[in-house]
Amino acid sequence: MAAAAQESTLLGLWDGEVDSRRHQSSYQTNKVGGSPDWLPVISRQFPRCGQCGAPLALVVQVYCPLEDSPYHRNLHLLACTAAECSGRSDSWVVLRSQALEKEVAAVQTPSRPAVAQEAALSATDWCDTADDWGLEGEEGDDGWGGGGQKDIQVQEAAVPETGVGAASEMDVSSGLQGLSLRESSEDIAVFRPFFISVVDESDLCGEEDGLEHAQQLLREYERREGVAVGELQESGLSREEKYEKTRARHGDAVFSRFMKKISLCPQQIMCYCRGGKPLFISEPPSNMAQLVSACSSCGGPRTFELQLMPALVSLLQRKDSSVEAELEFGTVLVYTCTNSCWTPRSDTPVKEFCFVQTDPDQQLFK
Fold first, then answer.
1. pTM, two decimal places
2. Fewest beta carbons less than 10 Å away: which of 8, 143, 236, 273?
């Protein structure tokens, strides 16, 4: 049974660096960069680039259980940082991991609590309601300088967990075909980790609070890191004027539509709308529907779930500053199994589908 489209679109924003001295991240932490946090029953994964064979770096980790589902659920987006692999879909990997609550509880000990951050549980269960990412969770001084939520929550429309059904005899590990998951002594790039906060896109329409929060987070980051990510308005131009200027420059209807859509909150680093429609930054291939392959585990169809946005590019900095990471993209579209199929007691993630589009004018987002 297909998942119903989510009514609201949720925007992910930068919300403070993950300080390992104060915060212990877990599989329930929604973040950019750092090292992957796997569910306790999932074996550690070491995917490699489909182009050059190098180990991949974690770009985004999302905790996104489905509403009314007994499963914990994670998405890990990893990419190759080699310059020659930048902007290639085969240099990215999306892994979906799931585990039943009872399975997780069975392996957890008092010294390894399920919640990595104190008082953060209410802000990490993304699926409390069908149109909320946890915005009703407690707010206040979060100790990160962001002044917002400690984590974000993703809700998704009710989807029956079909497990494997008739496909129970299929090898779920086929989701990782072509990947080398063995541990490697090679250097794996690690991006500086930071938390993700969220606003509902509809709250930005006629409301300044959500936009001001985004601007506040951005200004705080720029003050700390000395990085000029860019303001909502440049040189006194309104959003409409900036959109028209961009449209006149490019004459590209798809790109202009993309710019107009994100102009209300250009600082967004992620857009989530499971079952919704992706926002293309350039003309998609005419056979896009055919390019989105069937689920590698159950053979069923996939649905759009989330996409990474251009503003994320300038925020990706390697922890080892002596080595420069090359990761450029316009947007990264992620499609996942519509039924979110899962083999009971499996310890191997399912590889999902991603499609990378390059930015026609990357300098607009730097």
1. 0.70
2. 236
Chain centre distance of CA 114? 21
pLDDT tens digits, residue range 197-224? 878 888 876 555 555 666 666 666 566 6
Token match 């059904």: residue? 165
Residues 6 or more apart in contact with residue 86 via CB below 8 angstroms:
326, 327, 328, 329
H runs (alpha helix) in the chain? 101-107, 209-225, 239-250, 253-262, 288-291
91 φ, ψ to 5°? -100, 5
Q: Is the dihedral of CA 271, 189, 352, 66 positive or negative?
A: negative
Exposed / middle / buried, residue 276 (Cβ in 10 Å: 0-12, 13-18, 19+): middle
User: What sign for the dihedral angle of Cα 101, 107, 110, 114?
Assistant: negative
CB 329 within 8 A of CB 359: yes
Say if CB 98 and CB 71 are below 8 A apart.
Answer: yes
Distance CA 136, CA 99 (A): 26
Q: From the CB of residue 89, how many other CB atoms can be counted at a distance below 10 Å? A: 16
Query: Could you give the CA distance from residue 148 to residue 217 in angstroms, rounded to a whole number?
Result: 9
